[in-house]
Each structure stands twice: as structure tokens, then as C-alpha cells.
Amino acid sequence: MQIESQPFDHNTKAKQAMKSFKNFVSSGLMVCIAAAGLPFSAQARIVATEEVAAPAATGNLSASRDAVNQFLVRDDVRQAMLGQGVSPQAALERVAAMSDAEVAQLAGRIDQAPAGGDVLGLLFTVFIVLLVTDIMGLTKVFPFTRSVR
Prior knowledge:
The protein is mostly helical.
């Protein structure tokens, strides 16, 4: 009696695994698409500007006043005020008399004012970039570098 064997396919298990994976993914996608069509509740109402701005403003008011006062206390600012004929104490009293909106606006201007550190950082970055490109042989700006090429 002769036993006949069927040829063994090495890819049978891989094909079965891929088929079960495709079934799993397609089932999940069907559930997601069906759930996307379900209605969800939403609420809409008119919101006043004061309601939106109030939580942000209450936390930042004291920080804005502190930032302006810290700016006015600096020695270089005091010297500049005295040079213009303004008493530093009078400036602090005027800031205390300002409204919250005015203080917030002034604090924003102080934060946006350019500082000397930004210029130095930019110059240092440009120097490093040019130095690296000189060393790589892409430019020849500095005479003290030798290119890799």
C-alpha cells in the first residue's frame, strides 16, 4: 500500500494569518463607519466676549502689574526715566492708577521689546553656520579654517 502525500505549502499558514487579519481589520472598519453615522448631541449658545476673556484676565492681571513694576524698578530704566525728567516713584504711582486693560497692553509692549541678547544669539548662530560650512568646504569665509575637501 502506497501512501500518497499532498505537497506541503509553506505559505499556507501565512495566507491564513493574512486572511484572518484582513477579516479583523474589515470588521473594525465596518464598526467605525457605522458609528460615524450616529448622531451626537451638541450645545450651541452665544458667548459674550467678557465670559471668554474673564478667566484669562483674572490670572494675568497681577502678573502683568508685577511685570510692569519689575521693568520700572530696573536700574537702566530708572536712569532713562531720570534722563527724561520723570521720577521713578511717579511712574510707579501712575502704573498703580492705570486700568487693567492699560496695564495688560503695557506689559505686552514690554514683552515684545527687543533685547540685546537676541542680537548676540543671532550673530553667534550665523558665525557657527558659516564656520561649519567653511570646514565642510562649501564656503570660504574665514581664513583660519581648512576644508575637509
